[in-house]
Amino acid sequence: MARSSRTRTSGDSAQPLLDEAATAFDEGRYADALSLADRALASDPKNAIAHHFRGAALLELGDVEAAQQAYERAAALAPDDPEILLGFADLLICHPGDDRACVERGLTLCAKGHKLARRKDDPELKFEFLLLEGTALNQLGECARAVRILDQALEVVPDSVDARLERAIALFELCRFDEAERALQSLLLHAPDEPWAHHYLGLICERRGDTRSAARYLKRAQELAPDEFFAPVRLDDEEFDRAVEDAIARLPRDVKPYIENATIAVEPIPSDEDLTSSDPPLSPSILGVFRGTPVGERSVSNPYDHFPASIVLYQRNLERFARTREELIEQIGITLMHEVGHLIGLDEHDLWERGLE
Fold it and tell me: Residue 331: inside a domain, yes or no?
């Protein structure tokens, strides 16, 4: 969602260069836009708009780290500029890798930008901040809040494909599969080549056991966005079980005693019962789950604590996660260790700090 700034007045020496940079950016000439922004900064180093253009161009050119530095400077110089906040929030939310802190910071910028957009009575900016906020909430697993925010966005722009898609994804993550399916089917009537809609419809069909439709939707998603979706690495059951056994053998010595009284199983995908046993529900795309009471929380007075704990790995989700056989084998080990972490009492934050999220 990187964008150039709207036309605005800057310093006399920099403004012509910024006008040229805006034109270059809008025409997709990002290297030219970057060069023009640098020239503007040479004459006016504290020009927030020039730093904004520089960040937007760098982001499009794939240099996320340098883009963030540029946006840090722009936001420091103009902390109440909604366009700069929008560009910075987009970077933090849509290009964070696995950095949850970046997404949370982007969400804070969205809240501030939304207030500024309301004061300016700018519906377009209001919509953009709401859409980004909904996207961030989905990434953070706060999907019920995401639905509410995206409903507000759709009140502003009812036909937005991006907002409708993000809302359908939130419904899927909330395990409201029938609603998600209706939303995705409706979306395809307006945007038949939206790859993520095909992907999620494929996952819903897979959950229903409609393997033919699932394969058709998932294949179409791969055709439409081959860089986003790829053919899963498939192992037969025997190979997968052997990979799990190897992962168990590689567990640290001090961890192995904890799994002696736990069962480790493999299932194709999570059941509805597994997903909805917690509130909010677990994501249908989870790679594994721990069932039971962590070791340090067990009590002799709780009859349920006498049942053996179990760890389940979800083969189809793991296979879909990996691009290569080597990556799949590695992820089986990471997922197993993640669930063993829950067994010994670590929460998601603890696991994230240990790189096991």
Answer: yes
Q: Same structural domain for residues 216 and 322?
A: no
Asked whether residue 27 is assigned to any structural domain, the reply reads: no
**Is residue 320 domain-shared with residue 219, that is, in the same domain?**
no
Residues facing 324 on adjacent strands: none
Specify the CATH number for the domain of residue 347.
3.30.2010.20
Does residue 160 lie in a domain region? no
- Assess whether 244 and 179 both reside in one domain: no
- pLDDT at residue 345 in the model: 67
Instruction: Output the pTM of the full model.
Output: 0.87
242-274 burial: b if 16+ Cβ within 10 Å, else e? ebbeebbeeeeeeeeebbeebebebeebbeeeb
Domain range enclosing 223? 175-231
pLDDT tens track for 220-279: 999 999 999 998 999 999 999 999 999 999 988 888 888 888 899 999 999 999 899 888
Say what the pLDDT of residue 352 is.
Answer: 45
pLDDT of residue 260: 81
Number of domains in the chain: 2
Question: Is a pLDDT exceeding 90 seen at residue 73?
Answer: yes
Write out the E strands in 157-274: 263-267
The CATH number of residue 193's host domain is 1.25.40.10
Compute the distance between CA of residue 120 and CA of residue 85 in angstroms, rounded to an integer.
Answer: 14
Task: Name, in order, each residue with C-beta under 8 angstroms of 346's C-beta and a sequence gap of 6 or more.
Answer: 354
Residue 1 has pLDDT above 90, yes or no: no
Measured in residues, the chain has a length of: 357
Query: Does residue 262 belong to any structural domain of this protein?
Result: yes
Q: Sheet containing 288-291: which strands, arranged edge to edge?
A: 263-267, 310-314, 288-291
Placement of tokens 């004061």 in the chain: 119
Task: Return d(Cα 252, Cα 271) in angstroms, integer.
Answer: 30
Q: How far apart are CA 263 and CA 179, in angstroms?
A: 35
Cα-based distances in Å from 114 to 7, 35, 51, 322: 20, 31, 22, 37
> What are the structure tokens assigned to 320, written together?
């879909």
